[in-house]
Amino acid sequence: MSTTLPAAGKSERSADPAPGARVEFRGLRRAFGSTVALDGLDLTIEPGELVALLGPSGCGKTTALRVVAGFEQPDSGEVLVDGQDITRVPANRRDAGMVFQSYSLFPNLSARDNVAFGLRVRKVGSAERRERAAELLDLVGLPDHGDRYPHQMSGGQQQRVALARALALRPRVLLLDEPLSALDAKVRANLRDEIRRLQLSLGITTVFVTHDQEEALSMADRVAVLNAGRLEQCAAPAELYERPATPFVAEFVGTMNRLPGRLTDSGQVEVAGARLPVDGPVPTATREVEVLVRPENVTATADPQGTATVVSASFFGAVTRLHLDLPGGTSVKADLPSRDAGELAPGARAAVGLAERPVLVVARSA
Amino acid sequence: MAAMTPTPAPTASDAADTAPGSGAAPAGATARTRAPRRRPRPRVWRGAVLLLAGAYFLVPLLASFVFTVHVPGQGIDFEAYTELLAADGFTESMLLSLGLAAATIATSLLLAVPALVAVRLGSPRLRPVVEVMCMLPLVVPPIALVTGITTVLRWGPEHLSRTPLYQTFLAVQDERFPVVLVLAYTVLALPFVYRSLDAGLRAVDVPTLVEAARSCGASWPYVVLRVLLPNLRASLAGAAFLTLALVLGEFTIASLLGFRPFAVWIVTISGAHARMSVAVSILSLLITWLLLLLLSRAGTNPATVSSAPRTSPTSRKES
Question: Could you tell me which residue ranges the ABC transmembrane type-1 domain spans (chain B) (predicted)?
Answer without folding.
Answer: 94-295
